[in-house]
Design goal:
13 helices; mainly alpha; Four Helix Bundle (Hemerythrin (Met), subunit A); single chain; 263 residues; 2 domains
């Protein structure tokens, strides 16, 4: 992960949405910073707290308390809202978590203890924001590759176990299997190489389908045609999967990264 770029992206999101009080966008931008241990500057904390967005402010306060560089901070824009009365409105979570976690020194805990319901919750050590949690990484599964690998192995096993009179077809299927083996893709370092190999394999599959179809059409007895019919269908399924992965690779190559300078 390129942390400077990620920080630039999150800061730009925060700047764009703080004035509009978009809590959702602010929350995710701050959570990304929190999850990757990236600290924004003082100005970013100020505009988030001024927005009074509940969830975003909670994460900002957590980040501020972890920050070792910012020695002093003016919480005045928030302190006036930390009242017992505000435990009864939409900002109750911000009031409760701020005082429960003691994020702002000097704010009396009586704000909570004077409220019957929240005092009861506090006495049970209940809180709602857990800073130790993090997002489980999304697995970048190449499902098409796995399906391609499974399909080519099905084809290879069928050709091996059944009586295929045409030795050239068996040889071509074996070459195709070697080319489309899953490990051969995982060892590649660039999308260009993956794309080239997929395109080359796709051409071979199409050519092989034509040859198998031609052999099948020249046979009159169904029993002799059957193995070639099965091979043709397996190759068509393989062609479909290969094309899906080629399209996926093209989308990845053409994907535009967010540029904070671009509006």
């Amino acid at each position: 992960m390129n942390k400077p770029k990620l920080k630039s992206f999150c800061v730009e999101v925060i700047r764009r949405h703080a004035g509009k009080k978009h809590d959702y966008e602010l929350t995710w931008a701050l959570w990304l910073l929190n999850d990757f241990n990236i600290q924004p500057n003082k100005e970013i904390f100020e505009i988030v707290l001024e927005s009074k967005c509940c969830c975003a402010c909670i994460i900002a306060l957590d980040l501020l308390n972890k920050n070792k560089r910012i020695k002093t901070f003016d919480y005045s824009s928030l302190i006036d809202d930390l009242t017992t009365e505000n435990l009864n409105n939409r900002n109750w979570l911000l009031v409760y978590e701020t005082i429960y976690k003691d994020w702002i020194s000097g704010v009396s805990s009586s704000v909570i203890t004077e409220h019957f319901y929240f005092n009861l919750i506090k006495s049970k050590n209940i809180h709602f924001y857990d800073s130790s949690k993090n997002l489980a990484p999304l697995k970048n599964e190449r499902s098409n590759f796995k399906q391609i690998d499974r399909k080519i192995n099905q084809l290879l096993n069928y050709v091996t176990k059944n009586k295929i009179t045409n030795g050239a077809i068996k040889s071509e299927v074996q070459k195709l299997a070697n080319s489309l083996e899953l490990t051969s893709f995982t060892q590649m370092t660039t999308r260009k190489k993956v794309q080239d190999k997929l395109v080359d394999s796709d051409l071979k599959i199409k050519e092989l389908i034509k040859r198998v179809s031609s052999i099948q059409s020249n046979m009159k007895k169904f029993e002799k045609r059957k193995p070639y019919f099965v091979i043709e269908k397996r190759l068509e399924e393989l062609k479909h999967l290969t094309l899906k992965e080629i399209e996926a690779e093209v989308r990845e190559n053409n994907a535009l990264l967010f540029d904070p300078k671009y509006d």
